[in-house]
Amino acid sequence: MLTTITFSPGISNAEVSRRTGLAPQTASAIVTELEDDGLVTRGDVLRGRRGQPATPLYLDYAGAYGIGCEISWRHIDITLINLGSEDLGRYRRDFAYPDAAGIVAEAAKAIAGLIARLSPAQQQRVAGIGLATPSNLGSLIGNVEPPLEQLAAWRDLDLRAALEAATGLPTTWFNDGNCACFAQMVMSPPPRPANLVHLFVSTYLGAGITAEHTLWEGPTGNSANLGSMLVNGHDGHRALGHDVASTSALGRRLAAAGIALPPGNPADWPWADWEEQVAPWIAASGRALAEIIFNTGAVLEIDHAIIDSLAPQPIVDRLVAATERALSELVAIGIRRPRLVAGTLGARATPLGAAQLTMFRKHFSRDLSDMLTAGAVD
Question: Which of 84, 87, 89, 187 could be cross-linked to 80 through a Cys-Cys bond (beta carbons 3.0 to 4.6 Å apart)?
Answer without folding.
Answer: 89
